[in-house]
Design brief:
single chain, about 15% helix, three-stranded antiparallel sheet, elongated, mainly beta, 1 helix, 3 strands
Length: about 80
Amino acid sequence: MQKWEYKVIIRQRQSGFFADNNWSVNMCDFLPEMGEEGWELVSVVPLSSEYGEGKAGFTSDEKWVFKRPKDESAG
């Protein structure tokens, strides 16, 4: 039976008057590297750690889940 290993990347951004709203990880630059290492994107889950008036629907965090076949020959 195939076994898998998983990698989770959490990327975040801040909001507010002085925030630049940029993500902590640029996934466009990161995805080719992940593919070269054999990782396959399973899901992206939007999250929000921002509360308060005007924050409804604001995605401040994302959880990116990747998987790849586990190397049975390694340890």
